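Final report, section 2: Outcomes. Of the targets proposed, Glycine N-acyltransferase-like protein is the one most frequently requested by collaborating groups, and we therefore present its record in full.
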Amino acid sequence: MWETRVSLSSKMKILSKAEIVTAEKVLLKHLPRSFKVVLILKSKSTTVSKCSTARCRVGRFTVTFALLTRTDRPWWRCSWTRGRSSGSSSAAPNNESVGKTRKKVSYYCTDENALRKMLVDADVVDWSTYFIIGGLDMAQISMVKEVSSQRKVNTRTFIVLHLMYLIDSHHLLPEQEVPSQVASRISSLDLSHVDLVNKTWKFGGDEKGYSSITNFITNFPSCCITDEHGQPVSWILLYDYCAMGLLYTLPEHRGKGHAKVLISTMARRLIAEGFPVYCFIEEDNTLSYKAFTNLGFIEDPTYRAAWLEFNF
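The predicted structure is given below as tokens.
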């Protein structure tokens, strides 16, 4: 189920496509911190006419608000063929697949009191089960942990990250500078590659990781560079909130500039589709931080995002 709620009004209603677009416009005024939620909304507004069973709830929008989303529904399929991509809408996953994925909550908030009210509303967050709040503003972490403590739910900070985003695409690697032998091997991942990606993903390696990556590859754009046998040696994916991630190159293929090619290729694809380009990078991942900054990605130095686990 896909839901979006705003807590300033106790009255909830089904959100129309036009209202989703309005919500998106409001959130665009709060970039870059609202990237994660605005991209979830943007993906919803892109496919709402083809997802008749999806639900979206929202209260009244004002200047200060808290908006929370839960997302399991895919929205975009994309594949590369000889360096070119094609996209189409995707059908909803089966219930078994959804049940195996991590339960994730995202929010954007300009009013901490509004967020607090939302978190204490039992109908908004299911505190009885394991879930993750992703993209939590570090400035609000104390309040969230306080609410969690009041509900006698254990919590821990899963990871802290830089929010990086691209404003000027001129810093990306020019397509003409990609060696022809590399350009000819740019492709997309498929389901036969799930196990490989899961084994190399820091947060994967288990059944939930496998299911998450299956979702990413099936329903979102991916890009990889293959070897002479057609097997991926370097890849980048999109998370289900449209952030670039899972960038990885097999150790024996590093030092060849593959990451630069993949980041630039994926960024151009997103720009062509009208999507903002952004990513989250772990605080201690200096190599990725340098790779993205060298390609023109910037950040708000006063902001850090955190992922919190509950009922772990």
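The chain has a mean pLDDT of 79.
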